[in-house]
From TrEMBL:
<protein>
    <recommendedName>
        <fullName>histidine kinase</fullName>
    </recommendedName>
</protein>
<feature type="domain" description="Histidine kinase">
    <location>
        <begin position="20"/>
        <end position="229"/>
    </location>
</feature>
Length: 229
């Protein structure tokens, strides 16, 4: 237990450092991005090299921006403002935000919402951040044309369950066991902070999150809330 405590303190410390750096980097990055947009206006469309380099700079600035967002999200102490609301509505709203992306890649979406769910105290903004992270992971794991994202809600005894499944590349049991670790990533340009954030958010809602996966077959996440009664 004391080893866990040391580990927790270390994580809190790392989080604090990450947060400070992220804040410090954000302002100059915003300035850089704005200046870049200005510069883009000045580059004549027929100067190919200049436009190529411009795109490289802008892609990399975007990548730094994403890292900063992930760092800030993952290390933020979660202060919730929960409001009793419909889980189904919140899931639909979040899914709508990635539908363009799914359509662009010709991926299918299957949604089934139980109509008898009790309202759950949820912080809408934070819960949406969690769902978006999971949907984007699913999209990144699937192949265009073949991808199918499935989203179900249902009741089981005193529990409300949200299931998010994809038929993407799946994970080994080794990957699965590291899934929620900060900075664990299987991607070339990943931050490995997405699911750390997701888990923080779900846990601060007193929910549970579990994953199942099979290489080549896909991955399922189960988010579970106990209903009061
Ligand atoms: P990132 O997306 O930046 O890599 P995450 O914390 O969101 O960080 O995810 C960590 C890793 O877990 C991913 O890099 C990937 O290897 C694995 N992973 C997460 N979700 C899925 C999924 N739906 N299918 C397959 N692998 C996944
Ligand atoms: Mg991610």
């Amino acid at each position: 237990a004391s080893r866990e405590l040391v580990q927790a303190e270390k994580l809190a410390m790392t989080g604090k450092i990450a947060r400070t750096i992220a804040h410090e980097v954000r302002n100059p990055l915003t300035n850089l991005t704005l200046a870049l947009e200005q510069l883009k206006e000045e580059i004549p469309a027929d100067v190919e090299d200049a436009n190529l380099y411009f795109d490289i700079i802008s892609r990399n600035a975007e990548r730094i921006g994403k890292l900063i967002t992930d760092l800030l999200n993952s290390s933020k102490p979660k202060e919730l403002s929960p409001v009793k609301q419909s889980l189904n509505a919140l899931v639909k709203e979040s899914l709508d935000l990635v539908k363009d992306r799914l359509k662009l890649k010709n991926m299918a979406v299957v949604e089934e919402y139980a109509s008898d769910l009790p309202d759950i105290p949820l912080d809408g903004d934070q819960f949406k951040v969690a769902l978006l992270n999971m949907f984007i992971n699913a999209i990144e794991a699937m192949e265009a044309e073949l991808g199918k994202l499935q989203v179900f809600t249902y009741r089981e005894d005193n529990y409300v369950i949200l299931e998010i499944s994809d038929n993407g590349k799946g994970m080994t049991s080794q990957e699965l066991s590291n899934l929620f670790q900060p900075y664990f990533t299987g991607k070339k340009e990943g931050t490995g902070l997405g699911l750390t954030t997701v888990q923080n958010i779900i846990h601060s809602h007193k929910g549970r999150i579990e994953a199942e996966s099979e290489v080549g077959a896909g991955t399922s996440f189960y988010i579970t809330f106990k209903t009061q009664s």
